Amino acid sequence: MSETSPTISASGTTPGAEPYPKRWLALAVIAVTVLMVILDATIVNIALPAVSEDLGLTPRSHSVLMTAMEGEQTQSEIAQQIGLDKTTMVVTMDELEAAGLAERRPSKTDRRARVIAVTRAGQAKAAEGRELAQRVQEEILAGLPARERDALLSGLTRLVSDRLATPVECQKAPRRRAPRAVA
């Protein structure tokens, strides 16, 4: 590191100081993640269900629609992006297809794959959901003075798009449950 670039240390920003240990960075990531989960849980579990009744769409279905509109993606790719297991994704897609909001179509690039396509009705419903979610977020954040609200959103956005944008390599792989034995 050059002498002109300060390093963050336990005592503040000091040129040439020892950087924070990795465990401190991990704790900071956990703290920010907890804050974001609390904010997200508040919006998703308290505010959005009430709004969802008006919309006629669950937050999960809305997430699938919004992600599918980003480009040609398979059902598995969308499920992975938004953190759904395969069974929940299948059920969600069945509901969206039955409502005429999305459909499974053959991929243009891989004839074996099927991608999720959002219908015109699904695009309209997703736009309506985006507007409702924005309104809910504004209502929740209205409890903060404008300066604090802007600082919170700016800080979280910076962390998510910068330091937290790339997963940190783990020395030990996450523990997974062993597959069930077939009887």
> What's the SSE pattern?
EEHHHHEEHH
Helix content: 55-70%
Count helical runs: 6
Assembly state of the chains shown: single chain
Which terms summarize this structure?
183 residues, Arc Repressor Mutant, subunit A, two-stranded antiparallel ribbon, two-stranded antiparallel sheet, disordered N terminus
What is shown here, in short?
By secondary structure, the protein is mainly alpha-helical. The chain has six helices and four strands.
Protein topology:
Layout lengths: L6 E3 L2 E3 L7 H34 L3 H10 L6 H8 L3 H13 L3 E5 L7 E5 L1 H22 L4 H16 L22
Antiparallel strand pairs: 1-2, 3-4
Helix pairs in contact: 1-5, 2-3, 3-4
Task: Report on the architecture of this protein.
The chain has 183 residues and is mainly α. The chain has a domain at 20-145: Arc Repressor Mutant, subunit A (Orthogonal Bundle). The protein has six helices and four strands; from the N terminus they run E-E-H-H-H-H-E-E-H-H. It has helices spanning 22-55, 59-68, 75-82, 86-98, 120-141, 146-161, and strands at 7-9, 12-14, 102-106, 114-118. A two-stranded antiparallel ribbon has the order 1-2. Strands 3-4 form a two-stranded antiparallel sheet. A hairpin with a 2-residue loop joins strand 1 (7-9) and strand 2 (12-14). Helix 1 (22-55) packs across helix 5, helix 2 (59-68) crosses helix 3 and helix 3 crosses helix 4. The radius of gyration is 21 Å and the shape is globular.
